[in-house]
Amino acid sequence: MWIDRESKIDLLAYNPFAELVTNITANDRMNPLTVGLFGSWGVGKSTLLKLVENKINKLDPSKKKIVCISLNSWMFEGYDDAKSAIMESLLRTLEDNQPAFEGLKEDIKSLVKRIDFIRLGATVLKHGTPFLMGAMNPAVAAITAAQYMTEEKRAVILEDLKKVWKEKEQDPKDTMVENIRLFRKEFKDLLDKSKIGNLVVMIDDLDRCTPERVIETLEAIKLFLSVPKTTYIIAVDTQVIKYAVEKKYPKINEDTIRFSDNYIEKIIQLPIYIPELSELDLKNYLLLLICELFMKEDVLNRFLDKLSEDNLFLSGAKVDLEYLKKALGTFTEDQFRSNDLIGFINMFQTISVASDVMACTLKGNPRQAKRFLNTFLIRKSLAKIYYKKDPEFNYSILAKLMSLEYIDEKLFKDLYRWSLANKSQENISELKQLTEIVIRDEELPEEFRKWGDERVLRWLKSDPQNLYEKDLSRYFYLTRESLNINFSVSDSLSKEEMKIFTEILRAKKLALFNKIIKELKDNSHIRFTKILDALIERSRDDIKMLEKMQSIYFHYPEYRADIKDLIKKIKNKDLTLVTANILNGMYRKEPDEFQDVIKTLQEKNINSDLMEIICQQDNAAASISTQRKP
Length: 630
What we know:
Layout: H1 15-25, E1 33-38, H2 45-59, E2 66-72, H3 82-97, H4 105-126, H5 138-148, H6 151-165, H7 176-194, E3 198-204, H8 211-225, E4 230-236, H9 238-248, H10 259-267, E5 270-273, H11 279-294, H12 297-309, H13 312-315, H14 321-328, H15 341-358, H16 366-386, H17 395-407, H18 409-421, H19 429-439, H20 454-461, H21 473-478, H22 495-506, H23 510-519, H24 528-539, H25 546-555, H26 560-568, H27 577-589, H28 595-603, H29 608-614, H30 620-623
Parallel strand pairs: 1-4, 1-5, 2-3, 3-4
Helix pairs in contact: 1-2, 3-4, 3-8, 4-6, 4-7, 5-6, 8-9, 9-10, 11-15, 11-16, 15-17, 16-17, 17-18, 22-23, 22-24, 23-25, 24-25, 25-27, 26-28, 27-29
């Protein structure tokens, strides 16, 4: 299993980025500096920070020239004043762990007390006191509290003041602004006395914090901590910072649209963007994770060195067993944990096939890759418990089904229904027909158009191709949590998809929702199939959705089978003149294709007048008098 935390081993080929950042920290001309390691969620920012830390420590093992410390922003989430919390945490870390600061403990303690006065201002603000406390000392605090608070609230704030004051007397001239100036000066003096060349502070998990904490952390660095001989490396998703800035400073007009960008540029002097992994990178990453799981550490490190030496990541090649054997020189059991060479080969080959499909689904995200493999290992372990006496259980089938589950949960459920419907048959007929069409590179018929996504086509062509010959019940049993009948397609819609979905639901005019539905396929920023699936799902419980189903029926032939299934379940009492005219529109689109619906309605003994309307071959249906009796 792989834990969701930073890795000490470079499986992502981030070593060049780590070297770049390390070289920057060693350059005296580059500080004070704030570096932004920008990347999306799960891209590997924490791992890159760990690689940088290791390189800095190797650069100066004595830790007396370059001091590197790590702070986790999430640890300060519960504090009322995150600015003070992060400053104090930094100082406590220097006091406790760093050789360069061993003789400066009193200086550090003095700085911590200075933070107490700064924290005092935040405490006052927390209680809503008007900030006319220019001189921040107990006497003034008590007077202000007496003037502006009830006795009960005055007691609360004075108690808080006692907690942060810590018995230190303060010169009345020490205003809040003066405290900030003095802290910066004393912090600079502390670094000068330590005789270090640079203090490197790495800040992680900022994008897990609330918008308020994000801003406070950035402002603490800018206002208090950014002095000569310091470099701050902040790993964060820029979208999180932008959201936090816009949350605190709402846009007034279009002229302020770039305010969040300007804010980031003001705080971060040197942005370094971590790219998402390419499909090939992700394939190799999945396979290297398998190597990490099975190989002994020294063997894995030797293999990674060989990868770097051969520039495999840049050559566009995929790691395979032949390369592994060549790189290691020997390929023996003693190179693997528990001597499990056979287990490694089987797992490597299974994931190698799955990676060809999964790489385009995981969107270049290492964290998602780990989660996919962890889920696979859990299900593999369950399979060993449930089916230990079944020698024919095939883990490649399990991996292939999981791949479809990740690609499109709706199609995954469709395949489950097909497998149930064909349980007494030799083959899953729909899957057999679909697979053979795709392998022959023929155009998909309309009933299979939903399977036309490039990723799904890859999945159909991947091994084992003869999935339709297998009894899949055992494999679906291991994935039953994903087959929850309470699953709602609309729950999985993105923010933009949900906006369009809601717009269609609320649209009353035929021309409007018809236009929106027709243009869905041209929107490259969404998965239009998810919206259509959600609309069909909603229509199962709402007969009023039938007119919108007609629009989907006209413009998306691949959904006609689903819509016809819905129509066949319409109750007699719901068939009115309005619904009959809507059904007639679908009938006239392709009369022959609609015959199975007509047959089902006739078997329900639908009113003959309504059946006549439904089966009209021209526009006469629309002109039939609404006076006609049902």
